[in-house]
């Protein structure tokens, strides 16, 4: 009689009391191995003792070395510089701020007589030039030793027109200027190369003022053989009127001064427009000269500020990027068993739109949305069709019940006479390809290292990735087989981003961007992936529209 | 010698006690080895390795739970480790897994030796899962943990093992039927 039997029950019943005596050779082998282990047990403590002593000696050596070579504290130079800067900064503040006006008072008396000769018409370039010239003439007639300096009047009008007092002052200043010169340079440099994010207007002004004046000094150095004057020029922090005066003349007369716009460097023209807090009627022109220096700076800053404010803060940037996706450590996200396999990255595309907001001149924050496709291959795979295998952990096949089995090529029998009844079927070499599709929402900050027509920015931030699709394929010379989709992908994951941005300003509203960026994916997969650490590298190109 | 004394003596490395232990439990543990190994020869190797491990780790046995069960577990784990290195990866549709398989056969015709043989002929992973689940009563959760696979894989391996065994049994049944009755 035939019985329908549950297979489980069948086996269970048969194997219930199953016992079998092993051959005696088994015990013999066990015994032999036990004896060998006994011997090892004796040797091992000896070796470990030797190793322990050696390790201790090495440790002592390292510790002793560390103690001997311990450095004394490094002097904090930066503090010093900062202090210097602030004190000098304050001095500069005094010059550039309203204090200038108070300083104007005493200066009137000096140059009042000089400028009196100037025409009473408005302040314009010609006037100024005239004024200067007339000053010269005046000075020539006035003071005898001006004759000697006549030739250098154009650039040295201060010393030429000054009274003996002035000149002595200038001389004394020049002698003590040597030190200050270097200090100034240091300050100037310090101001010019701030990497911190202090953006106080004073500092900005300071930096610009310094850069201008030092630039002026530099450019005039070549023209002017009078070292006295140069030192003089550099004694900015004295708050010296002569200094300012000299400076002003330099600004006006120096054609090769590129740091200042001709229009800007001519404060007279500008002063014509600006109504100032003048007190004295007689010396309107005089006022203007000293005003101008202050105003020059103020207006520059104002202009800058305007450009900054008028600067379109918001930018919209559609972009497209070729993306290279791979793992830093090889392997495959599909199964930890493939962790030793090589992974081959592929280049795919990402496209989207970014929005950037300029918080300050150099600093931008940005976000956006991108659609990104990634693809990579796991190498060293071969496939066959059989039933003797286990599931790929990270793969869910959709209705494909064909028994495709994969094997790592390294595991295949190398010699034909090698028998492994698990690997008997013929195999075909293939690549296991995984494709991923995400929506990326980046949050990044952009800092401008160089901010001219061509600018270089450093970019850092993070992105959130939302999974939208994924697929796994087997690609071989025989064709492509779809294997379904991965089941170990997190629908939300993140990347940390770092990149370098190259911008070219085409017009005031249009920029061209090129941004190579590296993004490392975090939390992309759930479950074990055998150490698959994916990243992608993209070169984001786009045009940004400012408004 | 009582079991406790035997264990204590083995802990000290008494070779006589160790032999005694072997004599006492070898048959049972060899049966276990046979269920998990590919063949008789490999079962012997497995038993050997298992006992060495037992002697090495006997210090860790704290007289909690069955000593025989502890040794049996070691024997099974030794077999699992041997066949752990898995070469083949399968694409499987996890939705179509049959839970039960029935065979039509004459029970008295099927010998234990034959059943053992067809178990050993199973692919390693199928055999492991079948023996663990059907013969030794482990749950899919426990199997997943022991074999570092998912529960789904455990279930599908079991289904395939059953299918495989059923086919063989039915083929064998046919052979028996066509043979002359002796």
What does this structure look like?
The complex is a heterodimer of chains A (about 550) and B (about 180). Chain A contains 14 helices and 13 strands. Chain A has helices at about 5-15, 25-70, 75-95, 100-115, 125-140, 155-160, 165-175, 175-190, 200-225, 225-235, 240-255, 260-265, 265-275, 285-310; strands at about 5, 315-325, 345-360, 365-385, 390, 395, 405-410, 430-450, 455-475, 480-485, 490-505, 510-520, 535-545. In chain A, a hairpin with a 4-residue loop joins strand 3 (about 345-360) and strand 4. The radius of gyration of chain A is 40 Å and the shape is flat. The relative contact order of chain B is 0.11. Chain B contains 8 helices and 2 strands. Chains A and B meet through strand 1, helix 1, helix 2, strand 5 and strand 6 of A and helix 2, helix 3, strand 1, strand 2 and helix 5 of B.
Sum up the structure in keywords.
heterodimer, A: 547 residues, alpha+beta, eight-stranded antiparallel beta barrel, flat, B: 182 residues, mainly alpha, 8 helices, globular
Counted by DSSP, the helix tally of chain B is 8
Quantity of strands of chain B, as a count: 2
Q: What characteristic shape of chain B results from the CA principal axes?
A: globular
Distance between the termini of chain B: 49 Å
Q: What percentage of residues of chain A falls in helices of 4 or more residues?
A: 40-55%
Described by strand count, sense and barrel closure, the largest sheet of chain A is:
8 strands, antiparallel, barrel
């Amino acid at each position: 009689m035939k019985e329908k039997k549950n297979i489980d029950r069948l086996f269970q019943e048969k194997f219930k009391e199953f016992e079998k005596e092993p051959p005696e050779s088994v015990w013999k082998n066990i015994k032999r191995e036990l004896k060998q282990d006994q011997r090892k047990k004796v040797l091992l403590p000896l070796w470990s003792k030797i190793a322990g002593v050696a390790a201790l000696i090495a440790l002592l050596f390292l510790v002793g070395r560390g103690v001997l070579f311990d450095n004394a504290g490094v002097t904090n130079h930066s503090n010093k510089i900062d202090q210097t800067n602030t004190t000098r900064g304050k001095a500069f503040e005094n010059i550039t701020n309203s204090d200038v006006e108070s300083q104007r008072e005493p200066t009137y008396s000096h140059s009042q007589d000089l400028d009196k000769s100037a025409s009473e018409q408005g302040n314009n370039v010609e006037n100024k030039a005239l004024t200067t010239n007339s000053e010269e003439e005046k000075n020539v007639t006035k003071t005898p030793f001006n004759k000697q300096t006549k030739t250098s009047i154009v650039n040295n009008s201060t010393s030429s027109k000054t009274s003996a007092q002035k000149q002595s002052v200038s001389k004394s200043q020049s002698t003590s200027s040597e030190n200050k010169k270097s200090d100034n340079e240091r300050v100037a440099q310090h101001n010019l190369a701030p990497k911190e994010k202090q953006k106080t207007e004073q500092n900005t002004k300071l930096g610009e003022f310094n850069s201008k004046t030092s630039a002026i000094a530099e450019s005039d150095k070549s023209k002017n053989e009078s070292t006295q004057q140069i030192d003089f020029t550099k004694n900015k922090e004295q708050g010296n009127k002569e200094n300012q005066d000299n400076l002003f003349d330099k600004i006006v007369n120096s054609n090769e001064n590129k740091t200042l716009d001709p229009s800007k460097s001519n404060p007279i023209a500008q002063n014509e427009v600006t109504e100032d807090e003048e007190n004295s009627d007689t010396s309107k022109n005089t006022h203007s000269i000293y005003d101008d220096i202050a105003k020059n700076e103020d207006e520059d800053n104002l202009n800058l500020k305007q450009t900054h404010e008028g600067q379109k803060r918001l930018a919209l940037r559609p972009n497209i990027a070729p993306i290279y996706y791979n793992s830093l450590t090889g392997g495959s996200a599909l199964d930890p068993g493939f962790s030793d396999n090589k992974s081959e990255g592929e280049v795919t595309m990402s496209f989207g739109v970014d929005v950037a907001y300029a918080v300050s001149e150099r600093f931008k924050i940005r976000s956006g949305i991108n659609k990104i496709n990634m693809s990579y291959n796991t190498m060293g795979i071969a496939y066959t069709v059989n039933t003797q295998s286990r599931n790929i952990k990270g793969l869910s096949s959709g209705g494909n019940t064909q028994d495709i089995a994969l094997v790592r090529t390294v595991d295949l029998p190398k010699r034909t006479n090698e028998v492994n009844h698990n690997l008997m079927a013929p195999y075909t070499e293939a690549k296991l390809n995984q494709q991923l599709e995400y929506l990326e929402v980046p949050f990044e900050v952009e800092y401008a290292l160089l901010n001219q027509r061509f600018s270089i920015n450093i970019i850092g931030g993070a992105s959130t990735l939302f999974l939208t699709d994924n697929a796994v394929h087997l690609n071989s010379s025989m064709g492509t087989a779809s294997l379904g989709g991965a089941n170990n992908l997190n629908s939300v994951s993140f990347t940390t981003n770092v990149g370098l941005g190259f911008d070219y300003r085409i017009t005031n509203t249009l920029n061209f961007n090129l941004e190579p960026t590296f993004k490392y994916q975090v939390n992309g997969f759930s479950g074990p992936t055998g150490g698959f650490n994916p990243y992608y590298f993209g070169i984001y190109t786009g045009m940004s529209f400012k408004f | 010698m009582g079991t406790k004394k035997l264990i204590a003596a083995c802990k000290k490395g008494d070779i006589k006690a160790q032999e005694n232990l072997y004599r006492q439990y070898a048959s049972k543990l060899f049966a276990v080895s046979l269920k998990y190994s590919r063949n008789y020869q490999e079962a012997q190797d497995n038993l050997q390795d298992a006992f060495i491990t037992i002697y090495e780790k006997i210090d860790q046995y704290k007289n909690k739970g069955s000593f025989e069960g502890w040794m049996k577990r070691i024997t099974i784990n030794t077999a699992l480790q041997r066949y752990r290195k898995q070469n083949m990866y399968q694409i499987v549709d996890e939705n179509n897994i049959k839970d039960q398989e029935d065979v039509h056969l004459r029970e008295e015709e099927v010998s234990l030796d034959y059943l053992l043989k067809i178990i050993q002929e199973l692919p390693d992973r199928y055999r492991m899962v079948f023996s663990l689940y059907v013969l030794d009563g482990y749950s899919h959760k426990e199997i997943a943990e022991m074999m570092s696979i998912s529960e789904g894989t455990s279930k599908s391996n079991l289904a395939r093992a059953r299918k495989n065994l059923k086919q063989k049994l039915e083929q064998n049944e046919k052979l028996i039927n066509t043979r002359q009755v002796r």
